[in-house]
Amino acid sequence: MSTRPKFIAAIIVAAGKGERAQTGDFAEPKQYRRVGGRPVLARTIDAFLAHPGISAVVPVIHVDHAERYQALSLADERLRDPVPGGASRQASVLEGLKAIAALRPDLVLIQDAARPFVTVEQIDAVISALASHDGALPTLPLTDTIKRAPDGQVVLTTEDRRTLFAAQTPQGFRFGQMFSAHMRAATVRREFTDDAEIAEWAGLRVAMTAGDRNNFKITHPEDFRRAERHISGDKAMETRVGTGFDVHPFEPGDAVWLGGVRIEHTAKLKGHSDADVALHALTDAILGSIGEGDIGVHFPPSDMQWRGAASTLFLKHAGDLVAKRGGRIVNLDVTIVCEAPRIAKHVPAMCTVISQTLGIKPDRVAIKATTSERLGFTGREEGIVAMASASVEVPRDE
Questions:
Q1: Residue 10's closest CA among 83, 96, 77?
Q2: Is 274 annotated as a binding residue?
Q3: Is 48 annotated as a binding residue?
Q4: What is the pLDDT of residues 74-121, one digit of tens each?
Q5: Domains identified in the chain and CATH numbers
Q6: Known binder of ligand: residue 372?
Q7: From 88's CA, which of 122, 190, 318, 350 has a CA 20 to 30 Å away?
């Protein structure tokens, strides 16, 4: 007699502001900042969609982050619409549990969005443990000696580290029991640190599975450097360089788009998209660095869906292709040649648009403007030329 497959739902908790990981260069919430060219939250969701046993994935996001989430452009039939979170992690998980209740899942896995390196094997271990336990979570034994100091200054005692373990996620439970426990926990004056603690408080039996030191939580700025090292691993990297060149003539209008910035002018640039000559050259440079042809191959002018499109879409696509190779953009250099409009005061805004589109630091983007000393078609103010170069690092093909 066969049994029906278990319906397993995964809740990805991403409703925090991620402020502890922010720096002057990166003001984005940590779950939307890129690691290895891909946003942290997207990597975490991908990890669960890669598991064949997961039936549904439900992200719980901050109420102010809807546009950021949509920009991830994730698509999978198992991925449900995001749910607005609450004022605390505990409240956000409860909102996720409420959202999946109608699905009547057998098991639920609760995952921190800031742990993007969870593996299929770790997820498997938690699911397997739920066959004989009410809950399960991956843990790591502590290797440092642990001191207890109630005042934070003077040691009171030394703990027996052999009985202490660091908790990770995903934490898995039988759905009905966890939903009930969370509903009850919401009525008491106590803030629980994780879902396993709620399960323990509710009298459920929670098993430990083997954790993984690479399943670390990105919390502070230095954790992003560790994440980048983890992605590159021991693979030898090589530097590639690509160049791009583009030109667009003027036509009647009142503004031009350059570097993703609208600049008022006595004319506009003629083209199928927004005719952003700077971003077109830069996109070609990035595509050239990884041997992916040019912008016309990926976004043909004959395709009407790109008519009037913002060229940041093309640039982001090129950056995503680098990320899929396991690579990263090292630096970008753009030269714009025109007599008018004046470019210099718009350069900082252009650098910001480009860096945010590609998820790199602004100081990795250089934009320069010059004239052709009134020579040629640019000198006659008939159009604008842009030249660009891009250097990227990608894993060496052995």
A1: 96
A2: no
A3: no
A4: 989 999 999 999 999 999 999 999 999 999 999 999 999 999 999 999
A5: 8-232 (3.90.550.10), 237-395 (3.30.1330.50)
A6: yes
A7: 122
Name 390's bridge partners.
Answer: 242, 332
Chain-wide mean pLDDT for the chain? 92
Q: Is 247 annotated as a binding residue?
A: yes
Question: Which DSSP letter does residue 79 get?
Answer: B
Mean pLDDT of 51-67: 96
Would you say 228 is a known binding-site residue? no
Q: Confirm whether residue 352 is marked as ligand binding.
A: no
| Residue 335 marked ligand-binding | no
221-259: pLDDT as tens digits: 889 988 888 887 656 778 999 999 999 999 999 999 999
Quick one: pLDDT band at residue 19, thresholds 50, 70, 90?
Answer: low
Is residue 294 annotated as involved in ligand binding? Answer: yes
Is 296 annotated in a binding site? The answer is yes
- Strand pairing of 165-167 and 135-141? antiparallel
Check: CB of residue 89 under 8 Å from CB of residue 13: yes
Is 284 known to sit in a ligand binding site?
no
